[in-house]
Amino acid sequence: MKQNTFPPELTTDLFRELLDAEYASPSMLVYAAKREHRRLPTLLLSVFESEGEPLGSGARDELRRARERARDYRELHEAISEVAECRALKGAYLAGLYPKGLRRPVGDLDLVFADEPSLWRGVRRALDLREVTQIGFALHGAEGREIGIELHWSSEDDLLDGTASAEFHTAALPGDSATVPVRSALPENAWAAGLLGLAEERFQRPFGIRDAIDVYMMAACAPAADEVVEALRGCCREPEIVELLTYTGGLLDIGPLKPLSGALSAPADEEIERRARESRRPGVPSDEEDVVRRFSAGLPVQGFMLRRRDDRPDWSGVRRHEFSHGWIAMSPIGDFLLCGGEVVARDAYEAALEELELIEGDAE
After folding, report:
1. How far from chain centre, in Å, is Cα 355?
2. Rounded to an integer, what distance in angstroms lies between the CA atom of residue 129 and that of residue 126?
3. Mean pLDDT of 25-45
């Protein structure tokens, strides 16, 4: 494990150690970074650039596109903030911790909103400003009270970089839909909030080198351990935070964060015990397909888009409508067939469209 200095530095030598590529050529080091994660080469290329390594046209263009993606997200966030109270989840804060000139990998824009009306104002603003090609919709949390919206639009190079995307949430931390509860708000402490955002990723995937580098950057400005422990109280994510710190500590010298790892040990053990007790209670299985039962258990319910709507300027929330084949969620920006499974039956889809026509007819 490399003994690092604080504030930390990112170098190609450090990447060689992290990627187990000590003797790799620059091109093979980039390849190793790409095998780790599709967006990690962006950061590595910016490190090469900072060290004076000549970059070819392809490398320069990849960095330019990464800067443009970050600018796109920053401008969209600023525009949405003009009409709705919202807060970015980890990305913008963490990017500000990196040395000047280095490009933290960014995939999408994650925003959490103060309430549902604010979320819909933000979504409308995004739809006005970006040519959105795909909309994802989900309800989760207790009785499906929390909302998640995902918007996609074309990036400069969809084939190489993937589409641009933004996620809008009423809950900052969705949990694991089992024993780890939803948390609607983030701590006021920006550092603790950033750490929580990283730890939350564990419910979706294992930690990776990108996460370790983020923690490495955070180490230089870490608050006192007791301050962080207090900010995290009640978050129910202590085991994931300890796992993240342990993972990072196995790769890098986390220096100032070592006291935090120790201070969170007892709260993490208590949380693990709480989850064990919770898991022993009878519950609804995660593969349950009945929408109502999923809502009652706090399991997520996806929405399959039936049609977009731009004629509901006075709507500020979702209206659920039961019909013969299930449930329709009618939102300020469109209507969605709520799905408990991964496949939508054609007869349910067609029946939902017919039901919407009947609803419109009754309204007239």
Report:
1. 34
2. 5
3. 95
| Residue (of 225, 248, 220) closest to 2 by Cα position | 248
Provide φ and ψ at 72, rounded to 5°: -55, -50
Q: What is the pLDDT of residue 315?
A: 95
**Alpha-carbon Rg of the chain, whole angstroms?**
22
Query: Which tokens is 13 given?
Result: 């030598």
% of the chain with per-residue pLDDT over 90:
77
Burial state string for 65-88 with b = 16 or more CB within 10 A and e = fewer than 16: bbeebbebbbebbeebeeebebbb
121 residue type, one letter: R
Tell me the three state secondary structure of residue 209: helix
> Which amino acid, 66?
A
* Selection from 124, 129, 137 nearest residue 83 by Cα: 124
Burial zone of 275 (CB within 10 Å; 0-12 exposed, 13-18 middle, 19+ buried) = middle
E strand or H helix at 164: strand 164-169
Find the Cα–Cα–Cα–Cα dihedral 159, 161, 166, 171, rounded to 10°: 120
Q: What is the DSSP letter of 255?
A: G
Q: How far apart are the first and last CA of the chain?
A: 70
Inter-residue contact 294 to 327 (CB < 8 Å): no
Q: What is the pLDDT of residues 129-183, one digit of tens each?
A: 999 999 999 999 888 899 999 999 999 999 999 999 999 999 999 998 888 999 8
State yes or no: pLDDT of 261 exceeds 70: yes
